[in-house]
Amino acid sequence: MVQKTTQEILIENLSFSYPDGQAALREVSLQVAAGERVALVGPNGAGKSTLMLHLNGILQGDGQVRVAGLDISQPSDGVLRRVRAAVGLVFQNPDDQLFSPTVFDDVAFGPLYMELPLEEAHRRVERALAWVGMEGYARRVSHHLSTGEKKRIAIATVLAMDPRLLVLDEPTAGLDPRARRSLIELLNTLPQTLLVSTHDMRLVQDLCPRTVILDKGEVVADGPTEEILNDEVLLHAHGLERP
Known about the structure:
Blueprint (H helix, E strand, L loop, with lengths): L6 E11 L5 E11 L3 E5 L6 H6 L8 E6 L2 E2 L5 H10 E4 L12 H11 L4 H14 L15 H13 L5 E5 L7 H13 L3 E5 L3 H7 L2 E6 L2 E7 H5 L2 H6 L6
Parallel strand pairs: 3-8, 3-9, 6-7, 7-8
Antiparallel strand pairs: 1-2, 1-4, 4-5, 9-10
């Protein structure tokens, strides 16, 4: 079991450039404490998705990255396995996450990857589906579901791994108002630490007490959501609008 730590995310002076030379992150430092719900906002191309992909070792830049008490700046295979169990990364497009014949197979993939016994994997699938309000969907075909249902199943796939931290990329993208509200209500019930990258400023207002603005690969603001959303000059300067 991963040892508990006060800071679930500790990033210090993280820089990253893509092979074409484009600098995506510039000396980013960020701390997220256990139990926090933090919004990560900024214009397109700000570096939000790049930053999130560092949190389970998909990308590796220059600087220190510690997640769930694990140093993943230069991780071994064993550390990557542990951090990917502790960090549930939910992509913007659920079709990027759902690739198995049935919902059960999608949700069971993580526990089986963790080499858990089949009985425990079954238990985790049932628990995760119940958690997201999708009981009875285990034998359904994931790609026949609505976008809102797919989003819930995608979240269930990471909850089945019993993560300490959920990292969500544009969780409300493509949802109608009812599905959007339902998803926000679901996220508000989850006990995990949340880092949510989004352009949905109403989601930020409703879900996250703290907001971080990232622009041109740099953290330009970090503080209480209410204060940031009331600073129209700051929002306008970084391509954002009040909800």
